[in-house]
Specification:
By secondary structure, the protein is mainly α. It is built from 13 helices and 5 strands. The strands form 2 sheets. Strands 1-2-3 form a 3-stranded parallel beta sheet. Strands 4-5 form a two-stranded parallel sheet. Helix 4 packs parallel to helix 13 and helix 10 crosses helix 12. The structure holds tryptophanyl-5'AMP. Tryptophanyl-5'AMP binds next to strand 1, helix 1 and helix 7.
């Protein structure tokens, strides 16, 4: 007889606030692809989060569609996973409001990402930017996710989500599954190629590699990557942050261990090492770039994927929302 054990559920998302980068790929998407057979997976394009800072509407639309194509091109099978756009499932905003009433001002004030972003956008610190982690908690809790595969920078938000869920469950009895962040061993925090003290981010074109960068651009960025004045290819995050970052990228791209990579480049200078990392990334991203370009030619297919994704997501989300409404005392619609 077939084994009917219920699969555990995954939820994660990426903002279409910039083109997808190697950081998001190594910190998140790579794991999503690896986990898709073992878990029931739901992946979102979080356009509502993206508008917490000002976006150009045409770019936002283009990036959201391109991001869906990239999810598929990276290997996420729309038959196995639910792929959808956040603003197509209104339950996210609805639960977001409710959870905001169970979240403390002080908790949100302590969020590292809020502190950083409110410095970067000092002239536009909106209420949305402040309550961003509440919407993220709604994203996760609507689907009763067990696991949330993210890069290290999102761990604090997932922990806050757990706290909110625990608080709500404490007041109203078990309602939400408590999610656990899943952070990869290799690639949880890819640093900028231009400044290895900073995280690789969408908004720093020279320090980051975009999934759609052509090979010559990728190679140029790696050849120019900041290292140090020594010559040894050795992992030492404190004293050699640039080289350590490149080693991490190399290992995450090739599947090799740090020891194997160090041995491979022992006795060779950065002049050999940096282009080799560039080459490994070019080969990693080549199929993704080509498949994305192909998929973007077929808008009707992409539309069918996000429509079907939203339909399935709404089915799950509405069950949770109805349960929440009942528990807090709203009259059924
Ligand atoms: P976002 O869009 O900034 O990043 C998307 C994912 O990529 C990871 N990541 C990185 N990992 C390693 N190194 C890097 N340099 C790097 N840059 C980005 C992030 O950790 C993340 O996993 N708030 C989220 C989006 C979100 C979400 C959610 C995630 C909204 N709702 C629900 C999970 C569950 C964000 O801003 O990610």
């Amino acid at each position: 007889m077939e084994n009917q054990v219920q699969k555990k559920r995954i939820f994660s998302g990426i903002q279409p606030s910039g083109d997808l980068t190697l950081g998001s790929y190594m910190g998140a998407i790579k794991n999503w692809v690896a986990m898709q057979d073992e878990y029931e997976s739901i992946y979102c394009i979080v356009d509502m989060h993206a508008i917490t800072v000002r976006q150009n509407p045409a770019d936002l639309r283009r990036r959201a569609l391109e991001q869906l194509a990239q999810y598929i091109a990276c290997g996420l099978d729309p038959q196995k996973n639910i792929l959808f756009i956040q603003s197509h499932v209104p339950q996210h905003a609805e639960l977001g409001w409710i959870l905001g009433c169970y979240t403390q001002f002080g908790e949100l004030s302590r969020m590292t990402q809020f502190k950083q972003k409110s410095q970067q956008h000092a002239d536009n610190i909106t209420a949305g930017l402040f309550t961003y982690p509440v919407l993220m908690a709604a994203d996760i809790l609507l689907y009763q996710a067990d696991l949330v595969p993210v890069g290290a920078d999102q761990k604090q938000h997932v922990e806050l989500c757990r706290d909110i869920a625990q608080r709500f469950n404490g007041v109203y009895s078990d309602t939400f599954t408590l999610p656990v962040p899943f952070i990869p061993q290799m690639g949880a925090r890819i640093m900028s190629l231009g400044n290895p003290e900073n995280k690789m981010s969408k908004s720093d074109p020279e320090g980051c590699v975009y999934l759609m960068d052509p090979p010559e651009v990728i190679q140029r960025k790696f050849k120019r990557a900041v290292t140090d004045s020594e010559t040894a290819v050795k992992f030492d995050r404190e004293h050699k942050p640039g080289v350590s970052n490149l080693l991490t990228v190399y290992c995450a791209a090739t599947g090799k261990t740090l020891e194997e990579a160090e041995a491979e480049f022992s006795g060779q200078g950065y002049g050999v090492f940096k282009p080799a990392v560039g080459e490994a990334v070019i080969e990693l991203l080549r199929p993704v770039r080509e498949e994305t370009a192909r998929l973007l030619q077929d808008k009707a297919y992409l539309e069918s994927v996000y429509r079907e994704g939203a339909r399935k997501a709404q089915g799950i989300a509405q069950r949770t929302l109805a349960k929440v409404h009942r528990k807090i005392g709203f009259i059924a619609r």
